[in-house]
Amino acid sequence: MFIPLNFLLFFLLINFYSISHLKSSETLGSVLVDAYNYYPDIKKSKFDLEASKKDLNISKTDFLPSIDLTLSQGKQITKSNPDTSNYNYTTLNPSSLDLALSQPLGATKYLNLKSAKNNFLVSEFKNESLIQDILYKATKNYYNFLKERFLLDVAIKNEENLIQKFEATEKRFSFRDVTKTDVFQAKARLAEATSKRLEAENNLEI
Hints:
Elements: H1 5-21, H2 28-38, H3 40-61, E1 66-72, E2 76-79, E3 89-92, E4 96-102, H4 107-174, H5 180-205
Antiparallel strand pairs: 1-4, 2-3
C-alpha cells in the first residue's frame, strides 16, 4: 500500500511530539485503561454479559440428576396382655432406606438451555464489539488531541516569529529602510497567523 510522504512525515512529527512534549501527560495506554474501566457503556455491557452467564448456568443445572433419599427408623413395641399367651409380645418395625435417582429431561428444558446459550454468545459478541469500538474511538480522539495540540504549538511559534518580524519591519520603516507597503504586508501576515492560532485554540478546546 502506498503511503503519501507528507502523511508519513506528519505522523512521525506527531509521534515525536507526543514523546518529547507529553511525558507528564496521559499516555495512550492510560487513556485506554481509563476508558475500559470507567466508560458507562462498558460497565453496562459487562453487567449484561454476567447476567446472561448466570442464566446459562441456571439452565444447565436443570439437567443435573436429582437424588431423593428416604430414611425411616423402626421401633420396638412390647405389650403385656392379660392373656398369658400374649405376655411380653414384641413387635419390631424394621428400619428402611430408599434411594431414588432421577434425570430430568424434556423439550422445554432443552429449548431453554439452547436459548440461554445463544443469549450468552450474543452478549459476549456485543461486549467484545462494544469494547473494541470504544477503545478505537479513544485512540482516535487521543491522536486527534495530539494533532490539534501540535498544530496549536506550531501556530503559536509562527505568530511569535511574525510578531518579531513585524516589529523589526516597523523599526526599519522608521529608518526609511522599507516602504509602508512592507509594513502593511507584515501586519497582514501577523493578523493571519493570529487568526490561525485562535482557530487552533478553538479546535483544541472542542
